[in-house]
TrEMBL record:
Residues 21-128 form the PurM-like N-terminal domain. This is Selenide, water dikinase. It comes from Salinibacillus kushneri. Pfam families: AIRS (PF00586), AIRS_C (PF02769). Homodimer. One of its GO terms (molecular function) is magnesium ion binding. The gene is selD. GO terms for biological process: selenocysteine biosynthetic process. Synthesizes selenophosphate from selenide and ATP.
Length: 319
């Protein structure tokens, strides 16, 4: 992005390229701002219908992370029309459509190209009040940190690709990825939230690091309070780890201080590159507890995993 020439400042562009945030936000009047995002990727599961659901949930998540409500989506498709049965694409589109319908957004169209490898995703437009935007900066000392989905997705989907995961665990991780962050966004909406982001490719620690650095605060995370998907550690110990997770671990080496009790495998798990992860929310303690209680009422697996500190701004401690 540093190679893109800087454009003239636009007062209506409330969130743009200047921060590493989840989506762009453009104000159109005193009451409404547009939230815009785009995401697509190659299949991470064999089931095309489920792949469509996961891709949709992943793209919609960025709007929820900004505190917004999705209103329209457009499909982005790359598909080898001469090499794969078109029914596969139909199933991908059906899965996505069902998940978009669940979000309450409307499918407005899309674009497709003939590509050597299947790719699918969505561009999403949402709305948010200009004074209620949630950014990945703004966390304050004393805030508690809430995570709304378990980590380990990258490791488990790598195991799926290597045919190492049993059906029960495969079904579970796919359900986690396909779960919208809609209920999480609705749960935090009535409360005082200082910062929010969704946990995806940079892993839990990568996205927490962006929040800490942008907010100029420190963070302490408690390993035993972080929800982790079943079999994640066993698979990581066997070396079933995606390359992106290893790169995240290396990138964060100077930004994270680990307790001596946290093994290297556990460190990598915390850096695991995730698809369609949960929200990481920073809120005052009373609000954080209220949000977590509300999430429990809606059967969303969440946990308070740590707190924001004044010391060591831009750094994370894992204990």
């Amino acid at each position: 992005m540093r190679h893109i020439p800087k454009s003239e400042p636009n007062p209506n562009l409330l969130v743009g390229l200047d921060t590493s945030d989840d989506a762009g936000v453009y104000q159109i009047n005193e009451e409404t701002a547009l939230v815009q995002t785009l995401d697509y990727f190659t299949p991470i599961v064999d089931d095309p219908y489920m792949f469509g659901q996961i891709a949709a949930a992943n793209a919609l998540s960025d709007v929820y992370a900004m505190g917004g409500t999705p209103i329209t989506v457009m499909n982005i498709v790359g598909f080898p029309v001469n090499n794969l049965d078109k029914s596969i694409l139909a199933d991908i589109l059906a899965g996505s459509s069902d998940k978009v319908r669940e979000s309450g957004a409307a499918l407005a169209g899309g674009h497709s190209i003939d590509d050597q490898e299947p790719k699918f995703g969505l561009s999403v437009t949402g709305t948010v009040h200009p004074k209620k935007i949630l950014a990945n900066v703004g966390a304050k000392p004393g805030d508690k940190l809430i995570l709304t989905k378990p980590i380990g997705v990258g490791i488990l989907t790598t195991a799926i690709k290597r045919d190492l995961l049993d059906k029960e665990t495969t079904d579970h991780v796919m359900k986690v990825m396909a779960t919208l962050n809609k209920k999480a966004q609705e749960a935090m909406e009535p409360y005082n939230v200082h910062a929010c982001t969704d946990v995806t490719g940079f892993g839990l620690l990568g996205h927490a690091s962006e929040m800490a650095e942008g907010s100029q605060v420190g963070m302490t995370l408690r390993y035993n309070q972080i929800p982790i998907l079943p079999q994640t550690k066993e698979l990581a110990e066997q070396g079933v780890v995606p390359g992106g997770s290893k790169k995240n671990h290396q990138w964060l080496a100077d930004r994270v201080e680990y307790s001596s009790s946290i093994s290297e495998v556990e460190q990598i798990m915390l850096c695991d590159a995730i698809t369609s992860g949960g929200l990481l929310i920073a809120a005052p303690e009373e609000d954080a507890k209220a949000i977590q209680n509300k999430l429990e009422d809606t059967d969303i697996q969440s946990a308070i995993i740590g707190e924001v500190t004044e010391s060591n701004p831009g750094s994370i401690k894992v204990i």
